[in-house]
Amino acid sequence: MAAAPAAAGSGAGRGRRAAATVAAWGGWGGRPRPGNILLQLRQGQLTGRGLVRAVQFTETFLAERDKQSKWSGIPQLLLKLYATSHLHSDFIECQNILKEISPLLSMEAMAFVTEERKLTQETTYPNTYIFDLFGGVDLLVEILMRPTISIRGQKLKISDEMSKDCLSILYNTCVCTEGVTKRLAEKNDFVIFLFTLMTSKKTFLQTATLIEDILGVKKEMIRLDEVPNLSSLVSNFDQQQLANFCRILAVTISEMDTGNDDKHTLLAKNAQQKKSLSLGPSAAEINQAALLSIPGFVERLCKLATRKVSESTGTASFLQELEEWYTWLDNALVLDALMRVANEESEHNQGASEENGLPHTSTRTQLPQSMKIMHEIMYKLEVLYVLCVLLMGRQRNQVHRMIAEFKLIPGLNNLFDKLIWRKHSASALVLHGHNQNCDCSPDITLKIQFLRLLQSFSDHHENKYLLLNNQELNELSAISLKANIPEVDAVLNTDRSLVCDGKRGLLTRLLQVMKKEPAESSFRFWQARAVESFLRGTTSYADQMFLLKRGLLEHILYCIVDSECKSRDVLQSYFDLLGELMKFNVDAFKRFNKYINTDAKFQVFLKQINSSLVDSNMLVRCVTLSLDRFENQVDMKVAEVLSECRLLAYISQVPTQMSFLFRLINIIHVQTLTQENVSCLNTSLVILMLARRKERLPLYLRLLQRMEHSKKYPGFLLNNFHNLLRFWQQHYLHKDKDSTCLENSSCISFSYWKETVSILLNPDRQSSSALVSYIEEPYMDIDRDFTEE
Fold first, then answer.
1. Which helix (H) or strand (E) holds 151?
2. Which chain regions cross the lipid bilayer (predicted)?
3. Cα separations (Å) of 679 from 279, 571, 611, 618, 648?
4. N or C, fewer C-beta in 10 Å, the chain?
5. H or E element at residue 150
6. Residue pLDDT, tens place only, 724-754
7. Counting Cβ atoms within 10 Å, is residue 763 exposed (0-12), middle (13-18) or buried (19+)?
8. How crowded is residue 131: how many other Cβ atoms within 10 Å of its Cβ?
């Protein structure tokens, strides 16, 4: 760290400044042209040479120039700040100058965040811009980092109050002046140092918010293991600080998004994975591991996520925090919004009190309940996000075990009605410029984050049964006993002391609100995904019947057929859920046929399926697999369903299967394969694997060839399919790929998947099961390189 500039009054300092100034002005007669000053300062800021700081000017010159340009005296104040912030200073005068500068910038920050940015006639340039241009940002960074400098073995110290002023000014400058946040993000030693300022409660809030803004624009993710004494720092946070710290963690533990849709293709992801294997764990993975190594970290997050509003920080502490925010940011919106809520509740309570003849309590002494609730919602949002990311990380099993042990699920179940899925009140606080139904409002965001957490928690994990209570687990056992099938091991092994308590478990509560959700609700997608994740994995008859008994199938069909849902995302989630609910389940197909009881309804259902196979192909796969199993069973109940069910009869027709197969192959290409549409490739393979079992694979390939010719494009489909299967081998046969998902979803061994793909890719044109046998020589195009750089 370079030493601070010499005091303005010293002769040596004046001499150095004069030399630097003459060099910067290109030898002009000791005085720059006023119109060029800001331009030269900006140039110096970009290049690091020439005019860069207020200390390169004389006080007289700055005062004279300020009269013309209306700089609010900021350059002169910075000149004084340089003079009073040297290493041996006691910083008392320095702090006084900061107190003068701060209000000049905070008024602009207030106008900026309230969208009332208006340049007054008196000034040409904003104060924050002038402050930065004359070197104010760099100077404050140096002042803040003085404690990293040792003089004769002793570390320098600055007061918390002074640090707070520096942070406030820096934040306001970042808010109003473009490029400042990015420049601070490039100072990695400064960013790491900022974490140490969070040890003090007085500077925590300002530091955390500045770090969050900086990390939001930082090109490379910071590594938490580089933060000095991270474990001690986090362990010493109180619950309020830990909740706010989660805002920072959200940026440090999530993999950075490239922001380019093309980079979400499987080709690109595979290439990135190969690159990552050679580079080792990513910064996000390192940061997740660093957090999980902190004793009690996950336990404290679970307590934060599940505490009730009455257990949260007291009124006085919350009001103090609001006051800090208001004083620091001068953001009238914060106070205005909260006071609006307070007044509305006060009027309501006063009216009720007068009606009952009871005295009412002034809002000056009692914090409105809606404020307490919103405060808690904002905290839980961040905490649930961090837990969700950790659940999807490399240490998933470790996190799962801890989350179960610390009773996150039963805790969330107890909060479901009163906080998570509470009814909107007329006075519910929303973000500025938004409404209660906006996806950005805290209430909405909390619900979505909660549903994402349930989805991550249930997905392919035996702990999913913690979403039930003891009575519901007994119901699963009874279903298995009645059907004369073994109980699922995961149900038998579930620790009953960790499940939900109360009359209903979390899954049942979710089903109840799902069925009441309005047709246009944005929650439908996330609700369906969360319930589907409970069914995912090895198909469980008991799990399916548990949900069927609660009317889930009828609700899904109502949404697809009767409400004629238009949202592609919601339709896809409902089709996926319907597929998992019906797969191999005769009772489900009976219920389907009972609901879809007319040709008109069935045609509407088929129209929805055929409108987008990317969305509906998982249902097509599940029905195809179920048909194959039912046809091989000797059972009166199954035979009855096979003879009566419209859907099974429709899928059983070869022309129907060929139509699906042709379209599934035609709508995807190697270069456009994503995690979302790769299921189309696997569904097409399921159809062909079942045909192979019946020794009908050559027939299906021959029919595909005829369909090609009928479209006047011979070879275009089979060449594409050949390339897709080559990619399939590269993608699924990689050693880090988990093949159990394909096995579980189809009940077909992965070895049979591999064998079928190898048979189809056989280069021998004499083989009746090889694709090349059905592509005529002039149209052969199977060796195309589809790798992505």
1. strand 150-151
2. none
3. 30, 16, 17, 7, 21
4. C
5. strand 150-151
6. 999 999 889 876 566 788 998 899 999 999 9
7. exposed
8. 31
